[in-house]
Write a structure and sequence with these properties.
Blueprint (H helix, E strand, L loop, with lengths): L4 H17 L14 E3 L16 E3 L2 E3 L3 E3 L7 H17 L3 E2 L4 H5 L4 H10 L5 E6 H5 L5 H9 L4 E5 L2 H6 L10 H11 L4 E4 L7 H9 L4 E3 L8 H8 L16 H9 L8 E4 L6 H9 L4 E4 L1 H32 L5 H4 L4 E3 L5
Parallel strand pairs: 4-11, 5-6, 6-7, 7-8, 8-9, 9-10, 10-11
Antiparallel strand pairs: 1-12, 2-3
Helix pairs in contact: 2-4, 2-13, 9-11, 12-13
This protein binds flavin mononucleotide.
The site of flavin mononucleotide (FMN) has 26 residues, from helix 1, strand 7 and helix 13.
Length: about 350
């Protein structure tokens, strides 16, 4: 069934509400990072005060290897959330994304909820967002250009969400021409294209096909954090007895490790997300080869409970701890940290 902008807006509101009030985490499956440990180096010579976490996001310098994942826009509540997230991103000099702009392309009603990112985070990289269902039906490049221009985006993020669409009431679980259209977009806009999942993971076998289309970034958004099948199972009362899909997907650590291997052949930005919340998980993702880590639901919860300052102190605390791990593994920068600083626990015995 065709979805209209009011239905989209109410769905987006449900998503925010459920992510704030229900436990929509994976139940039995983890992100897999607990299987790894760091290689402690007793002879570290690193000066902890000089560890540098600056990195680049498609040519722009950012202060931490971190981005605020694409989440929202298109509802009354999302204006405030995006304004606060953008303010935190600007203060910290890190990238920030908006949620799917599908509705904004159909209707001007909530444009401000997206544009507030541009207003409040003018100097940091900004991420546009469109979904696979829309991309697969594209007839031309014009809507994509409008989405990018709406927030003067530094990257276009395309989210792939087959499991979510499959369980969503009125979902659209059919993606004809998806790769062909991603390839068309990559060749027709100058803005780099990042492809992400929403919490069920992108493995190397999928990433390779995307990179061959010209994609410049992969955000694995793996299993172990927010489960979008869990969210849709809560929303879709018509579905019973299908809880098997609650825990569907590829664990984030598996995705990061296997997709990082593709760097031998392809040049791209690897983003680790999907339950990468604790500082130890953040550090493990970076040590396994991610260029940047990202978070969504935990930031939504933090901004709602503790506002802009809460988000800033939450992210700052994570990276202060990452620096301590880098000190103890004799890594003075991220490049060194990605070289043999992590090991599977079973190999330590
Ligand atoms: C309230 C909410 C809304 C979201 N909406 C979008 C969206 O519109 N587009 C998108 O690409 N991802 C969306 N996501 C998915 C996140 O970007 C992320 O991939 C996923 O939640 C896994 O990360 P996490 O475990 O840190 O939450 C949303 C996440 C949350 C919490």
């Amino acid at each position: 069934m065709e979805r209209n902008h009011l239905e989209t807006s109410s769905r987006k509101k449900d998503h925010i509400d459920l992510c704030l009030t229900e436990d929509v985490s994976f139940k039995k499956k983890s992100n897999g990072f607990e299987e790894y440990d760091f290689l402690h180096d007793a002879a570290t010579e690193v000066d902890p005060g000089k560890i540098n976490l600056e990195t680049k996001f498609f040519g722009k310098k950012i202060s931490l290897p971190f981005l605020i994942s694409c989440m929202t826009g298109g509802t009354d509540e999302s204006f405030k959330i995006n304004t606060q997230l953008a303010t935190a991103a600007q203060e910290m000099n890190i990238p920030v994304g908006v949620g799917s702009q599908r509705q904004a392309l159909e209707n001007k009603l909530y444009h401000n909820s997206f544009k507030t990112i541009l207003k409040n985070a003018p100097d940091v990289p900004k991420l546009s967002n469109l979904g696979a269902a829309q991309i697969s039906l594209l007839k031309g490049i014009e809507p994509v250009k409008r989405a990018v221009e709406m927030i003067d985006a530094d990257a276009l993020v395309i989210h792939l969400n087959p499991a979510q669409e499959m369980l969503q009431n009125n979902g659209e679980p059919f993606f004809p021409n998806l790769l062909k259209n991603i390839e068309m977009i990559c060749s027709r806009i100058d803005t780099p294209v990042i492809v992400k999942e929403v919490g069920h993971g992108i493995g190397s076998f999928t990433a390779k096909r995307l990179l061959n289309c010209g994609v410049k970034g992969i955000d694995v958004a793996g299993a172990g954090g927010t489960s979008w099948t869990a969210v849709e199972l809560l929303r879709n009362k018509n579905i019973t007895g299908r809880n098997f899909f609650h825990d569907w997907g590829l664990p984030t650590s598996y995705c990061v490790r296997t997709v990082a291997d593709l760097k031998k052949k392809y040049k791209f930005l690897l983003i680790a997300s999907g339950g990468v919340n604790h500082f130890s998980e953040t550090a493990k993702a970076l040590a396994l080869g991610a260029d940047i880590t990202a978070q969504a639901r935990k930031l939504l919860q933090t901004v709602k409970s503790d506002g802009v300052e809460g988000v800033i102190s939450y992210i700052t605390d994570i990276f202060n701890n990452v620096k301590q791990i880098m000190f103890l593994t004799n890594s003075k920068n991220l490049k060194q940290f990605r070289k043999n600083k992590i090991i599977r626990k079973k190999e330590m015995i």
